[in-house]
C-alpha cells in the first residue's frame, strides 16, 4: 500500500460489536476477522476520505506513538485485508 | 465436559425445494417435504436465538432459498437480529424486483452457483433448460444493485476443463471471490461417483490452475479452493471440527452438526420446535458425539494433526469405512486409504449416466438435450 492511497470498506464489509465474545469483529462475505485493539483503532480511522498517511498521522497523535511504527502496522494490516478484498483502495 | 465455544456460522436450509436437479446436490437423499418446512415465525425466532448464542454469519440456503416466498422477510429479520446475511442461490426464482426487495431488506452478500460455463454444460448438469441464460441475467442484476458476489463453481470430471473460463467469468461479473469447489461425495453425489469422479490428472491440473490464478489475480479476485477429496493424502478439516464453529438447520427444524449428519444412523437430532438452540448446541447428544478429540480412536488419538483436521469427515468415515468414529479414509494413516485410492481411480475410469436429484412425489428428471 502506498501512503497516498485511500482505503475504504466496500459494501458488505462492516465492523460489528460481538457482544457474546466481548470483542470487535470485521464481518465480510462468509468470513469473520476478530479485531484486537490495534486493528480496531486502525479500521476506525478508515472512512473513505483519509489516505494511509492521514490515518498514520491521526493514530500517531492519538496514541503518542512513533509514526514509523504505526505506518508499518497500518500498511501491513490494511494491505492484508486488501488482498482478501475486505478493504478496497481509491 | 467443558462448555463448548459459541458457534460462528449457521447454515439455514430454508427448503429442500429446488428447480434444479444437480446430481451432486448436498441435500440428503431423503428430501424434506414442503409441508414439513418451518414457518416464517419459527425461522425468525431461530435467527434471534442464533445471534444470542454467538452466531455472526448466517447462510440462507436450500434447496433453492428463493423458492421460499418469505425470503425477503427472513432476510430482514436476520439483519435485525444482528446477523451477517449470505444468500446461497442458483439464481432461479430471483427477479429484478425480488433482488431489489432483498437489497432493501439488508441482504449482505450473494453466493451464486455455477454448474458450467456454457448453456449446454450448465443446463445439462442442472437438469433445467434455460437455467444458464436466467443465471446470467440474475448475475447482471446483482452487479447493478452492487451486492458483493461470490461465484461458486462446482467442478467434476465432466466440467473441470471449464475451470479457466469460470475464473474469467467471475472477474467479468465483478465478483470479489470465486469458490472453486470440486464435488464432495456426500448426498446425491455419492450415487454419482462413476459419472463425476475427477481423474487424478484433472485434480492435479485444477490445483495448478488455481495456484497460477491466485498469483495473477491477487487483490482482485480471491480464490477459495476445495480440492478433489478422494485423491488427497490428508482429510479435510470438516466443519472446522464437529460442533466447534458451525451448525445447520434442516428445513423441518432439525439441528444438525453438518448437512450430511443424518447419514450417521445412530445419531439423534433435536428440533428447534421443542428445545432451545443454546441447549442443543451445548448439550445435544449429536453435537457432543464427535466434539473435540476425546472420541478419537487410533491413529487419530496420537496423531500430531488431530487438531488440524479433527480426524476428517465423520459422514465420509460412515460412508466409506462403515463407522462414523473411524479415521476419514482419505487419510494416509487410515487402513482404508489404499483401497480408497484404487476405488477413486476406478470411479474416474467408469462411464455412467447422471442420476439426477428427484423430489418426493415428483417424476425423475430426464437429461436436457
Which structural category fits the helices and strands of chain B?
A: alpha/beta
Distance between the terminal alpha carbons of chain B, to the nearest Å? Answer: 56 Å
Instruction: Give the strand tally of chain B.
Output: 9
* Average pLDDT figure of chain B: 95
Low-pLDDT runs of chain B: none
Q: What Rg of chain A is obtained from the alpha carbons, in whole angstroms?
A: 13 Å
- Largest sheet composition of chain A: 3 strands, antiparallel
N-to-C series of helices and strands of chain A: EEEEHHHE
Strand arrangement in the largest pleated sheet of chain A = 2-3-4
| Number of distinct helices of chain A | 3
Work out the radius of gyration of chain B. 20 Å
Mean pLDDT of chain A: 95
User: Most extensive interface, residues per chain?
Assistant: A-B, 18 and 25 residues
Assess the beta-strand content of chain B as a share of residues: 5-15%
Class from helix and strand fractions of chain A: alpha+beta
Largest sheet of chain B: 9 strands, mixed
Shape of chain B: globular
Distance between the ends of chain A: 11 Å
H/E element order of chain B:
EHEHEHEHHEHEHHEEEHHHHH
Q: What is the chains' assembly state?
A: heterodimer
General form of chain A: globular
Explain what you see.
The complex is a heterodimer of chains A (90) and B (369). Chain A has helices spanning 37-45, 52-63, 67-83; strands spanning 7-8, 14-18, 23-28, 31-35, 88-89. Chain A has 90 residues and is an alpha+beta fold. The mean pLDDT of chain A is 95. Chain B is built from 13 helices and 9 strands. By secondary structure, chain B is an alpha/beta fold. Chain A binds chain B through residues 10-13, 16, 18, 20-21, 25, 27, 29-32, 82-85, and chain B through 6, 8, 52-54, 56-57, 59, 82, 84, 86, 108-109, 111, 146-148, 150, 176-177, 218-222.
Summarize the structure.
The complex is a heterodimer of chains A (90) and B (369). Chain A has 90 residues and is of the alpha+beta class.
Chart the SSEs and their pairings.
The complex is a heterodimer of chains A (90) and B (369).
Chain A: E1 7-8, E2 14-18, E3 23-28, E4 31-35, H1 37-45, H2 52-63, H3 67-83, E5 88-89
Antiparallel strand pairs in A: 1-5, 2-3, 3-4
Chain B: E1 9-13, H1 40-52, E2 57-61, H2 71-80, E3 84-89, H3 96-105, E4 109-114, H4 119-126, H5 131-145, E5 149-155, H6 163-173, E6 177-182, H7 193-196, H8 200-216, E7 222-226, E8 246-249, E9 255-256, H9 277-283, H10 285-289, H11 306-309, H12 314-321, H13 337-349
Parallel strand pairs in B: 1-2, 1-8, 2-3, 3-4, 4-5, 5-6, 6-7
Antiparallel strand pairs in B: 8-9
Helix pairs in contact in B: 1-2, 2-3, 3-5
Amino acid at each position: 500500500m502506498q501512503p497516498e492511497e485511500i482505503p475504504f470498506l466496500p459494501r458488505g464489509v462492516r465492523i460489528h460489536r460481538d457482544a457474546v465474545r466481548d470483542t470487535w469483529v470485521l464481518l465480510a462475505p462468509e468470513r469473520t476477522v476478530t479485531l484486537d485493539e490495534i486493528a480496531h483503532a486502525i479500521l476506525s480511522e478508515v472512512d473513505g476520505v483519509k489516505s494511509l498517511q492521514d490515518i498514520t498521522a491521526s493514530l500517531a497523535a492519538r496514541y503518542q506513538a512513533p509514526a514509523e511504527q504505526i505506518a508499518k502496522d497500518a500498511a501491513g494490516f490494511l494491505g492484508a485485508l486488501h488482498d482478501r478484498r475486505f478493504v478496497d483502495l481509491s | 465436559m467443558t462448555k463448548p465455544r459459541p458457534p460462528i456460522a449457521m447454515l439455514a436450509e430454508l427448503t429442500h425445494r429446488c428447480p434444479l436437479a444437480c446430481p451432486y446436490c448436498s441435500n440428503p437423499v431423503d428430501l424434506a417435504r414442503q409441508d414439513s418446512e418451518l414457518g416464517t415465525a419459527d425461522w425468525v425466532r431461530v435467527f434471534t436465538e442464533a445471534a444470542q448464542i454467538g452466531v455472526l454469519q448466517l447462510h440462507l440456503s436450500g434447496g433453492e432459498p428463493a423458492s421460499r416466498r418469505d425470503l425477503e422477510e427472513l432476510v430482514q429479520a436476520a439483519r435485525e437480529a444482528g446477523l451477517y446475511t449470505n444468500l446461497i442461490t442458483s439464481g432461479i426464482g430471483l427477479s429484478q424486483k425480488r433482488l431489489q426487495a432483498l437489497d432493501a431488506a439488508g441482504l449482505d452478500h450473494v453466493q451464486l452457483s455455477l454448474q458450467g460455463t456454457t448453456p449446454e454444460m450448465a443446463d445439462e448438469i442442472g437438469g433445467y433448460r434455460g437455467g444458464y441464460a436466467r443465471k446470467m441475467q440474475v448475475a447482471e442484476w446483482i452487479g447493478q444493485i452492487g451486492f458483493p458476489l461470490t461465484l461458486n463453481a462446482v467442478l467434476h470430471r465432466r466440467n473441470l476443463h471449464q475451470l479457466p473460463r469460470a475464473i474469467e467469468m467471475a472477474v467479468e461479473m465483478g465478483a470479489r471471490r470465486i469458490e472453486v469447489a470440486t464435488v464432495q461425495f456426500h448426498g446425491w453425489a455419492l450415487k454419482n461417483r462413476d459419472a463425476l469422479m475427477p481423474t487424478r490428472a484433472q485434480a492435479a491440473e485444477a490445483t495448478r490452475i488455481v495456484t497460477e490464478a491466485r498469483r495473477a489475480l491477487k487483490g482482485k479476485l480471491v480464490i477459495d479452493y476445495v480440492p478433489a477429496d478422494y485423491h488427497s493424502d490428508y482429510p479435510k478439516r470438516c466443519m472446522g471440527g464437529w460442533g466447534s464453529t458451525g451448525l445447520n438447520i434442516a428445513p423441518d427444524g432439525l439441528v444438525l452438526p453438518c448437512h450430511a449428519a443424518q447419514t450417521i444412523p445412530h445419531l439423534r437430532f433435536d428440533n428447534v420446535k421443542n428445545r432451545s438452540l443454546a441447549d442443543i448446541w451445548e448439550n445435544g447428544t449429536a453435537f457432543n458425539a464427535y466434539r473435540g478429540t476425546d472420541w478419537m480412536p487410533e491413529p487419530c488419538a496420537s496423531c500430531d494433526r488431530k487438531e488440524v483436521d479433527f480426524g476428517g469427515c465423520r459422514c465420509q468415515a460412515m460412508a466409506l469405512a462403515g463407522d462414523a468414529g473411524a479415521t476419514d479414509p482419505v487419510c494416509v494413516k487410515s487402513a482404508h486409504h489404499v483401497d480408497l485410492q484404487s476405488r477413486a481411480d476406478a470411479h474416474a475410469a467408469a462411464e455412467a449416466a447422471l442420476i439426477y436429484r428427484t423430489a418426493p412425489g415428483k417424476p425423475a428428471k430426464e437429461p436436457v438435450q
